[in-house]
Amino acid sequence: MLFRHILNTHRSPTLLPSLLLGRHVRYNATQTPLAKGPNEEILEMLRSERDAEVNRTHPNPFKVTAFSNAIEAIAQIRETIKSGDDLVLERKGIGLGIKNRINHYFVEQDLTLARNYDQRQDALRRRAVIDLQKVPGIGRVKAQALVDAGCWNIASLIRSDQYHSVLTTQQKICLKYINHLDKTASPEQAEKVLETIKSSISPQYEAVLAGEYRRGLSDISTIVIMLLHPSYVHVPMPTELPPIFEDRATLTKRKNILKKSERCSSLTKAARKTSLLHTEVLPSLKSKEIIFETIFETLSTWTGVVKIPSTTGDGVGASGESSAGSVASPLKLPPGEYRRLVIHFMPQKSQSTALVALTGDDDLNRYMRKRAERKGMLLNEHGLWKWNFSEAPKEPEADSPNNEHSNASEPSAGVSADGVASAAIGKVDNSSLLATGGYWGMVKTPEEADVFKALEMQLIDPSKRNWGFLSGKSKMRPKPKTFSSSFVGL
After folding, report:
1. Which contiguous run of DSSP H or E holds residue 137?
2. Would you call 95 helix, strand, or coil by DSSP?
3. CB under 8 Å, gap of 24 or more: what pairs does 37-41 form?
4. Which helix (H) or strand (E) holds 463?
């Protein structure tokens, strides 16, 4: 009798989810079930969509995580959610994709309850505005304008040139690749892209996969490649003032000492001619139809669309899908698979800090930069920097890194590979920052391990570079994201 009771308990459906998730949950047969909150119907909708994503042949782990985080956050809300635009969702950090799904849920309810033609049309218009926002880069204002012009769905937007005229270049690109850019790449696909790029440019270039690939993720939202060349040695000098000024009012007054034209480098025609990225790399990759439309670019970075090399030798990717399906349209693509690619062209001397920054994740980068700031230093993708006073400060400096690093600071207008100061990108010279009473010097960090050592941190394996791994070692928590850093929302 006792054995039968134990057996039935282990078969209890109440325990199965916990067992499947590998969680150890103590079940009390007499405990009262948790009361349902005021937003249970919304939660059920989100759970259903999350489960549908999980059960797909190739589920998107980022969507699954977004659904799970949203479900957890909304379950804690004690007030009734009446719209996806409620401020309570903003305060909880709910992303735009989830907000639109909540709005869509309410619109479908309104359609069901519509009693006349006007109410139904109003609900249909609101649904169309939500659906058009599924195109990355199209927000509510542009979606509303399209609906007012008579475009009520994505199929019409793809098919008709009439609506293309109101879209920006970036929005047209997002529409063209709508069935591709929200998909993830596999590590094998990322490696294939790297191999193809390497074989298409001079062997003098060194190309390294970074980002989610280097962190060991099996689903990669963006393929990130760091590119190096022996002739690219100039390191841009930081334009920020040091975080160790005691007089914050003085810091506020001085922070704009650099003109805007000095703080950033514009991508002019003249600048393009001096950049190997724009004169050699990108033209070669475009001519061989490896990369396609440009989404965003600067002097040293390029973000755009890459075609996944075929594994069958027929020029067609694994799926052979076209973004516009069978619709005859100027936006129709040749068969193949396309993904988002970011190329970062970095100076040789910035290799270690660039690899740290481009590997991520974002939370770990913020933590390390904050840690450098507390030590009176500055960490960015171009280097680890220590402030040098032109005259001794009245108060001792903030914590410095190990002696072997602190004694190795170098003047840093633009620091060449042989240690000779040269003009930095953006025409920022030492005289601009000397007005603040000092200058930035680059700390020698030839390897990633040196960056961690200078910040008095243990070297973290790339596969563990995430906040979840680090949070157990520090009470400091990064600020939560208030927006999505990914290119495509849910």
Report:
1. none
2. coil
3. 37/75, 37/77, 37/78, 38/77, 38/78, 38/79, 38/80, 38/81, 39/74, 39/75, 39/77, 39/80, 39/81, 41/105
4. none
Average pLDDT over residues 394-422: 38
Read off the tokens for 38. 């005021």
Instruction: For residue 399, give Cα distances in angstroms to 112, 136, 376.
Output: 64, 44, 7
CA distance 406 to 237: 18
Which of 118, 174, 95, 113 minimizes the C-alpha distance to 338?
A: 174
pLDDT of residue 478: 40
DSSP string, 205-233: -EEEEEHHHHTT-SSBSSEEEEEE-TT--
Quick one: pLDDT at residue 148? 93
CA angle 374, 380, 384 (to 5 degrees): 65
Name, in order, each residue with C-beta under 8 angstroms of 305's C-beta and a sequence gap of 6 or more: 173, 177, 180, 181, 291, 292, 293, 295, 338, 339, 340, 341
List of residues 6+ apart from 270 with CB closer than 8 A: none
Beta pairing partners, 259: none
CB atoms within 10 A of CB 299: 19
Q: Which two tokens stand for residue 49?
A: 């969509």
Q: Of 388, 483, 484, nearest to 436 (Cα)?
A: 388
Residues with Cβ within 8 Å of 312's Cβ and at least 6 positions away in sequence, in order, are none
Give the global pTM.
Answer: 0.69
Contact 469, 358 (CB under 8 A): no
pLDDT band (50, 70, 90) for residue 216? very high
Place of tokens 């516009």: 324
In this predicted structure, what is the pLDDT of residue 334? 82
CA proximity to 308, closest of 203, 181, 208: 181
Contact 213, 190 (CB under 8 A): yes
User: What tokens does 293 get?
Assistant: 């439309």
Write the DSSP assignment of 8-47 as a string of letters: HHHT-TTTHHHHHTT------TTSPPPPP-TTHHHHHHHH
| 385 membership: H or E segment, kind and range | strand 383-389
Instruction: Please give the full DSSP string across 281-333, using - where no structure is assigned.
Output: IHHHHHHTTSEEEEEEE-SSEEEEEEEPPPSSSSS--SS---TTTT---TTPP
> What is the CA 390 to chain-centroid distance, rounded?
39
N residues, the chain: 490
Torsion angle (degrees, nearest 10) of CA 144, 104, 177, 341: 110
